[in-house]
Design brief:
Distance between the termini: 47 Å
Strand content: 25-35%
Largest sheet: 10 strands, mixed
CATH class: Alpha Beta
Number of strands: 12
Shape: globular
Strand order of the largest sheet: 1-2-3-4-5-7-9-10-11-12
CATH topology: Leucine-rich repeat, LRR (right-handed beta-alpha superhelix)
CATH architecture: Alpha-Beta Horseshoe
């Protein structure tokens, strides 16, 4: 078991914490870890002193309440998915320091604040997924943050009224996916009348580069895919 490179465990309860953390600590070659708690139980991981050193993909499903103290040891992590974590607005300050993170997925109230602020770090992040964050009203991405961001996905964040200021000027951003968002957000992109669309529209925004002799200008176009 100590040689495992991948493991998924479900149905966890709080009483499993000590033995679970002892077992994970012994898996020094682990690259992929997925943990799911039972719905009525928190996902307790505080007894883990540090993460497996080669861990690249981490999926945590269950209430955490706070970012585990060992997150700063996830130096090789590339993919992070958090679901039902109920993390507060200070959680991002612990995630932003992960030096090799390429994809971040916050889903099903993994984050429960109104303001999601990205002010530091995320130097290598390429894909950001925000799904089912019921309280989210504002996303802030400071200038110079996420310089490598290529794809932004926002789904079922119904209190969100607009995309982050300056999103059009993210140098490497190529696509924005929107689904089941507020009519205000849809209309800010597609214009009036979209609230009468017969189904929840899936909107894809893509960047096109128009070249002429004097300059290269980026433009954004939207497509309604259903």
């Amino acid at each position: 078991m100590e040689q495992l490179r991948s493991i998924e465990l479900g149905g966890l309860i709080e009483a499993d914490e000590e033995q679970l953390c002892i077992s994970i600590q012994r898996m020094q070659y682990l690259h992929y870890l997925r943990l799911n708690s039972q719905p009525q139980f928190a996902l307790k991981l505080d007894a883990l002193p540090s993460a497996p050193p080669y861990l690249e993909k981490l999926f945590l499903v269950g209430k955490l309440g706070k970012v585990p103290h060992w997150f700063n040891t996830l130096v090789n992590l590339k993919f992070l998915s958090l679901q039902k974590s109920e993390l507060g607005e200070d959680a991002i300050s612990h995630i932003q320091t992960l030096p090799n993170l390429v994809q971040l997925d916050l889903a099903k109230n993994a984050f429960v604040g109104e303001h999601l602020c990205f002010v530091e770090g995320f130097k290598k992040l390429q894909r950001l997924y925000l799904r089912g964050l019921s309280e989210l009203k504002e996303i802030v991405i400071e200038d110079g943050m996420m310089p490598g961001l290529k794809e932004l996905n926002v789904m079922a964040c119904k209190e969100l009224r607009q995309l982050p200021n300056g999103w059009k000027h993210q140098t490497h951003l190529k696509a924005v996916h929107l689904y089941d968002v507020s009519s205000e957000l849809v209309e800010s992109i597609c214009g009036k009348g979209m609230d009468h669309h017969p189904t929840k529209p899936f909107i894809l925004l893509t960047r096109t580069d128009d070249e002429d002799e004097a300059q290269v200008e980026s433009k954004w176009v939207h497509q309604i895919l259903n």
